[in-house]
Amino acid sequence: MAVYTQLGPQQVDTLLAHYDVGKLVALKGIAEGVENSNFFVQTTQSRFILTLYENRVNPDDLPFFYALLKHLHDAGCKVPQFITDRDGQWLQTIAGRPACLIEFLDGVSVTEPTEAQAHSTGAALGHMHQALADFTLSRPNSLGVSAWRPLASRCTVEGLESIATGLSARVFAECDYLEAYWPTDLPVAAIHADLFPDNVLMLGDNVSGLIDFYFACSEVRAYDLAVTHSAWCFSNDGTAFDAEVSAGLLSGYADYLPLDTATREALPILLRGACLRFLLTRCYDWINTPANALVTRKDPLAFLRRLDFYSDGRHVENMLGHYT
Ligand SMILES: Nc1ncnc2c1ncn2[C@@H]1O[C@H](COP(=O)(O)OP(=O)(O)OP(=O)(O)O)[C@@H](O)[C@H]1O
Ligand SMILES: N[C@@H](CCO)C(=O)O
């Protein structure tokens, strides 16, 4: 569940009085998500998401997210806009929390994507990357390659071994490998960094919205493709790779940005990096979240299985065969 702060209609009425968006008709907490408190707000004029930023989003980063979404929206990408009040303010305080009123986008997130849906997602990602080529703000990636070893240490050897025997050695060996081979010659730009299926809204086969940009940061651009590939192209538990979904995602992306030689050569490393990032954050949460907490812990081993898959160079070669 993700309603950490409760809100009453009176508080939301008071907030909405600053905007030209009509009067409150319905207010409902949204269960999905784990980072922020989200509410569905229906007014006499339209529908909105009201997000209250809880401890994991640093309020100092909000101007970066605002500018990023405005830039993408102005470039025609399907992302929600932050709504400004009559004084031009988009950042408010409600119940003592920083809060924003955000455009509501139609669509549902899929759990078992088809090739066509993956194609549309790849295209939306490529379009976004193209649009961000002239976006000038930056935000360091606090979960990038240099953060993985310290994060693994914070998980502790015992913690990692409690999840799977041998996991600790595997994780530290992977840190050695990725630190040695992480690409330094590819374009760096603002990326989404967490484009899992639950952060993509779809209507039928078509993307209607990309949401949840709160991990967005400056990074090797193709790493975003790697993250998205690792999130979309496997069964949830990571045991089954779906070659059709992979082909759809890559071809949608390549409609906007070519998979040039440098990108193709770096992808095996970037894909392994994406797996290690989610393996480690899930391990950390697994170890530090009580089993009976309201937030459901995500299975870390689902990303160890993906890491195993990508570590076999033949798999990535087959996937990219069409582009060489
Ligand atoms: N702009 C939007 N339009 C429509 N629905 C939205 C929008 N933003 C968020 N939602 C809904 O709210 C849910 C939670 O939003 P979001 O993923 O941003 O939360 P979060 O707490 O940051 O989640 P996460 O755990 O994925 O980081 C989404 O799954 C979606 O159903
Ligand atoms: N999308 C992530 C959670 C947010 O980083 C995961 O599934 O582990």
Automatic annotation (TrEMBL):
Gene expressing this chain: thrB
EC number: 2.7.1.39
Keywords: Amino-acid biosynthesis, ATP-binding, Kinase, Nucleotide-binding, Threonine biosynthesis, Transferase
Pathway: Amino-acid biosynthesis; L-threonine biosynthesis; L-threonine from L-aspartate: step 4/5
Domain Aminoglycoside phosphotransferase: 27-255
Pfam families noted in UniProt: APH (PF01636)
CDD domains according to UniProt: HomoserineK_II (cd05153)
UniProt entry tagged with the keyword Kinase: yes
InterPro entries linked to this entry: Aminoglycoside_PTrfase (IPR002575), Homoserine_kinase_II (IPR005280), Kinase-like_dom_sf (IPR011009), Pseudomonas-type_ThrB (IPR050249)
PANTHER family xrefs: AMINOGLYCOSIDE PHOSPHOTRANSFERASE DOMAIN-CONTAINING PROTEIN (PTHR21064:SF6), AMINOGLYCOSIDE PHOSPHOTRANSFERASE DOMAIN-CONTAINING PROTEIN-RELATED (PTHR21064)
GO molecular function list: ATP binding; homoserine kinase activity
SUPFAM superfamilies attached to this UniProt entry: Protein kinase-like (PK-like) (SSF56112)
Protein name: Homoserine kinase
Enzyme class per UniProt: transferase
HAMAP family, per database record: Homoser_kinase_2
Top-level taxon in the UniProt lineage: Bacteria
UniProt-listed GO biological process terms: threonine biosynthetic process
Organism the protein comes from: Sphingorhabdus wooponensis
